[in-house]
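Input sequence (684 aa), recorded before submission:
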Amino acid sequence: MTWIEALPSYLLVAVLLILPGLLLTQAIGLRGLLRAAAAVPLTVAALAASAVLFGFAGVPWSALTVGAAVLLVSGVLFLLLRLPRLRARGAALAGEDDGAGGRGDGVPADGPMAAPGRSARATTAALWCAAVLGAGLVAHRLTLILVTPDAVSQTYDNNFHLNAVRYIVDTGRASSLTLGGLGATDPTFYPGAWHDAVALLVQTTGLPVLPVVNATTFVLAAGVWTLGSIFLVTRVLGDRPVTVVAAGLVLTCFPAFPYLLTFYGVLFPNLMSMVMIPLLLGLLAEATGLAVRDSGLGPAARWTTILAVVGAMGLAHPSSVLVCLLLLLLMLVVAWSRRARRPGAAWWTTALGAAGLVAYGLVLDRVWESARASRQASTWEPHVTAPQALGEALAGVNPRNPELTWGLVVLVLIGLAVLARTRSRWVVGGWAVLVWLYLTAAAQRDLDLRYDWTGVWYNDAQRLAALVPVLAVPVATAGAAAVAARAAAGLRGLAERRGGGTAQRLAASPAVQAGAGLLAVLLGFVVLQGAAMTHVVRLGDQHYGWSGYGSLLTPQELALLERLDQEVPEGDVVFGNPLTGTGLAYGIGGTDVLIPHPGLLPDDDGARLLVRHLDDMTTQPGVCEALAAHDVRWVLDFGDARVNPYAYFDTRGYDTLIPERGFELVDAEGPDAALYRITGCPGL
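Predicted structure, token format:
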């Protein structure tokens, strides 16, 4: 499949991810940039929340029931939030404030997205340019990472993710509260928003799972991340065209995010959750009074949107909500400090606010403690010294990247200095918090301190490195805008000294300014996307290629999986070692498997007997009974190459697949991909 051939399918996936959320944004009353940035997150919120609710009610989760739920919720939100505002519009036009003209504290509302004295068309054009620039560059990098639009992630976790998608499609059970067992073991919690979205897309479009997965990655990384980051930048720095366009370029330049999480792990749920963080932080900045621009929402509409985004993030991966709660504490402290310093502020309101902050901190501490993974699961070790980790954080690179983009380091340092002198200085503190978390995971040798702070992320520096660009984007954008302003001032001064009035008029013409902006973007691209970006792209390509990191599947194994449903009757179960990729007989081949993931072996004596003694079926008592109990009729053998060399799976039970032991070779592809029928149990 070529990228041109895949384009219609990718566009269809994008449209289906946008439309439900677009309906919800219309019902809430969102508009402009916020509406665009919130569309997919609200879709995710609707899918994931309906999955949980339908799970409680025992209602099958499908495109039909989800569509009905979205229409119902949209109608209710319209009646509660939008209709009263529409009725008040006449009064607002007469001079009353219906919530669309600002907060009354000097912070302008978006309205036409242009501040007084500037062209609304220039701002709108800048927003479009930034969105197209950001989405286009990220999408281009993703094509280099995936190579083909139907590439398969060669990673350990992909076993679970693809099988979870198939499980939802087959059973209609999509609740995050029960997804963890995949029907093989007892139901447990596993954040399922990503799996819900992909499953619904597969069910609705009829497309194979692999291109749907990759198209969803494009929508999240190129779409949601781009629009959310631009939204956050406009809340922090305003919407001057040079700032907006700079944001569109800067958001594409950090190797650690979004690129790293498109292949590492592979952590699809983390990617989905983290691309929504900028949107949420922008909304929280408005709600706490820290934003320099306002969306013009009433309190009910704003908090409805915030809660929906929090729900989407939490059901995609809760760790992103936790880090936002930590950053919110910082934002609340800044907001409280500003109010406390206002002339005439009552002492008792200041004291009450301080008590509330203390209570919030104590509750957050308990939540943080309960959300940490176990120490046994938090196995990642420090990998660099503190100065090296600081350098990686300043450049926003993935851990162990041998290259640093010094242009980004310079912009981040300039941006920190610029923001420290503005009302958005809270971003400097937030960036420092994210850097501190990364330094703790990457370099801290005090294991207790390290676990206390980063156990939520399994002490994994890769996941925490991906957090840093969330606030590094507005920081570096502030630096880029400052550099651009200084350069523009220098050029204007040169025109005044050397060229007289003609040169000044020429420099002020829109065409010249647009050309200068284009040259600045091209220069920025060359300076900011260098060897560090090349390294992360090559690393990603190895995780999707056939001969790089790991070895989940080979081309021959994938070919056998894709025709498996033509050879294995419906209802029959396949046995195999999931560390070699055989578990994907379910996720890709559509055939039931006994073990969908290395950690999901059915907890019964029969399953354990099969793992140890399957090829002893003609001599070992109980094996045939276990095969019958689990409907196992087939064996997939993908050799002994494991996707995770540190993981273990007992292969003693099927290391002798010969006719004398009760196995008949039915199909093979290459030297290491074979399908066997079990023939050693009479009457099976």
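Checked by second reader. DSSP finds 27 helices and five strands in the chain.
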